[in-house]
Amino acid sequence: MVTDSNIIRIKNVSRKFGNVKALNHINLAIEKGLLFGLIGPDGAGKTTLLRLITTLLLPDEGKITVDGFDTNKDYKEIRKFIGYMPGRFSLYQDLSVEENLNFYATIFNVTVKENYHLIRDVFIYLEPFKKRLAKNLSGGMKQKLALSCALIHNPKILILDEPTTGVDAVSRKEFWENLKQLQKLNMTVLVSTPYMDEASMCDKVALIQSGTIMEYNTPAQIVSGYQKHLKAVRSENMHALLTDLREYPGCESAYLFGQYVHYTSEEKQTVPDQLTSFLVQKGHTEIQVLDIEPNIEDCFIASSAGIPNHTENIK
Amino acid sequence: MTREPIIIVNNLVKKFGHFVANDHLTFEVFRGEIFGFLGANGAGKTTAIRILCGLSFPTSGEVNIAGYDIYRQRDLIKKNIGYMSQKFSLYEDLTVKENIHFYAGIYGIGITEIKKRTQQLLEELELKNVENKLIKELPLGWRQKLAFSVAIFHNPRIVFLDEPTGGVDPVTRRRFWELIYGAAEKGITIFVTTHYMDEAEYCHRVSIMDQGRIEALDKPDKLKTRYNAGNMDEVFLQIARKTKIG
After folding, report:
1. Are A170 and B237 in contact (CB < 8 Å)?
2. Does residue A281 fall inside a structural domain?
3. What does residue B236 show for φ and ψ, rounded to 5 degrees?
């Protein structure tokens, strides 16, 4: 193969399950060494896309190459150099921690010893429980074991399907720190997640909804491509604020965002003073109106408004 | 809002063998309040919720839910609360209407009233044209709003929501919180767990558990000031990280 900075190329890929279109004409090129985030809600098509890349599914149309190999023809080659951690825990429950790890190493013709440096940061927490059966581990420990098993053969590409779903904020942060370390070892890492705030941990993210990639870029560029004027508004009664803002002339959208309501208008600019006096008239107190920069979640919300089978809209 | 306590927990302890899952929890939740119950995985939230719902007994301590005692009046507690979780909410092989009828029936609501209010609800939720569809055919967001409405169909005093919005898209997640606000304004107390820290901001007060204890309990604004943090995520990390063992 000629050297190609894109280790994964996805060209016009679609995949159906019965009548359900899981993916519609996906195009993506993922550069070598990237920490890539696939971000979207349940049912958006994240798992399908990752399973296509891992050769576990074949596309109905289009083509995927992984390090130059075609997923359709060369699946045996591809499977040698990828590590995959599916969303559902899939290790052997009746084997111990140690047995699971040895099993995966043996399948790939490596020893735990030669590649231990790859898993040390993660596996260190499991050392005291080496003899414990996988089924008796806590959720966080299972996840660490699954990651160790996916890594033990030193894959070129590590693919993780929702590793942080249902995991608390502290453990999520630690997990991303682990991934950053792996990236330093020259690994390309693909992660899917429903948590928008994790976008900032990635080099590049693809926002996916209803089988469509809405955006693909660095988080900073996605944010700078946001077209609207965004305001953050707050008052004593947030629920009433939401209702009242939606009645304000020119309101395009108003939605909860942490301690604020995020507000966009159809016209170029909303005059903060006018908006404030409108809210005062409605009986609000402790009113704050700020101009703010959007984040990835604002971008996701704005983009998903244009997706045809997305049934719910804000406002 | 009148400060009428509806959940009273006093020195609640729950042990499993030598392991202390809940270590002297003491707190109150008020009528109509949206109370966020946060904590890292394994902090003891689920254990506490199971006790508050009357599904398990404390090792010691006093718990009063909607005026009923956890040791002696568990059946009355169950009648006066609603529950919804991300994992289990509705029967996938029943239709929208069948699910509503089933849950309402369990809570002993009369058939005439069930029929009348089912129609009302279907109109409110704009689900009238899918009333005879199976739950599994509906998008996740629709299922969740239905699951929530079903959980409060019998007009409970309190509804427990265990990670109700996990995995849902940002728009639907916010729609869901508007339903929560609506229910709270009708006087239903909301007891909710979540891993989304922006949702912690939507709560009137939040508690943060760590290793079986409540480490902090206050309004989000007050917590941010106390921990000198810009948002709830930072507050949470400060509290949960200091004792984290991995």
Report:
1. yes
2. yes
3. -60, -45
- CA atoms of B145 and B176, how far apart (whole Å): 6
Tokens 């810009």 -> residue: B230
Q: Do residues A103 and A206 share a domain?
A: yes
Q: Which of A222, A241, A265 is the last residue of a domain?
A: A222
Identify the pLDDT of residue B139. Answer: 82
Q: Number of folded domains in chain A?
A: 2
* B34-39 vs B205-210, strand pairing mode: parallel
| Contact of A233 with A245, CB cutoff 8 Å | yes
How would you class A271 by CB atoms within 10 Å of its CB: exposed for 0-12, middle for 13-18, buried for 19 or more? exposed
Burial class of A226 by CB neighbour count within 10 A (0 to 12, 13 to 18, 19+): middle
- The per-residue pLDDT for A141 is 86
Phi, psi of B123, rounded to the nearest 5 degrees: -70, -45
Give yes or no: residues A271 and A209 share one domain.
no
Gap between the Cα atoms of A195 and A198, Å rounded: 6
Inform me whether the C-beta atom of residue A139 falls under 8 Å from chain B C-beta atoms. yes
- Cβ–Cβ under 8 Å, residues B208 and B236: yes
Question: Is B202 at the interface with chain A, CB within 8 A?
Answer: yes
Domain boundary among A171, A190, A222: A222
Residue A315 lies in a domain: no
Residues A69 and A95 in one domain: yes
| Probe site for chain B from A21, A39, A171 (most B CB atoms < 10 A) | A171
Model pLDDT for residues A169-198, shown as the tens digit of each residue: 888 888 899 999 999 988 999 999 999 989
Residue B51 token pair: 């006790």
Nearest to A155 by CA among A77, A102, A93: A77
Task: Please tell me whether residues A212 and A273 are part of one structural domain.
Answer: no
Determine the distance in angstroms separating the CA of A9 from the nearest CA of chain B, rounded to an integer. Answer: 27
Co-location of A88 and A160 in the same domain:
yes
Only one residue has tokens 């703010």, namely A292
Q: Does domain B1-80+158-164+190-246 have CATH number 3.40.50.280?
A: no
**What are the helix (H) ranges across A96-162?**
97-107, 112-123, 139-151
Measure the CA–CA gap between B222 and B241, rounded to whole angstroms: 20
Contact B41 A209 (CB under 8 A): no
- Is A300 among the domain residues? no
Q: At what angle do helices B96-106 and B111-124 cross, to 10 degrees?
A: 130
Q: Which CATH number characterizes residue A269's domain?
A: 3.30.70.100
Domain limits, chain B: 1-80+158-164+190-246
Query: Which residues lie across from A161 on neighbouring strands?
Result: A192
Cβ contacts of B40 on chain A, cutoff 8 Å: 168-171
Could you read off the pLDDT of A64-91 as tens digits, one per residue? 999 999 999 999 999 999 999 998 888 9
Classified as helix, coil or strand, B115 is helix
Counting DSSP H helices and E strands in chain B, the numbers are 9, 10
pLDDT digits (tens, 9 = 90+) for A269-279: 778 889 999 99
Q: Which domain holds residue A213?
A: 6-222
Q: Is residue A138 part of a domain?
A: yes
Q: What angle do CA B73, B155, B12 make, to 5 degrees?
A: 40
Respond yes or no on whether ipTM tops 0.85.
Answer: no
- The Cβ-side half-sphere exposure at A96, using a 13 Å CA radius, reads 10
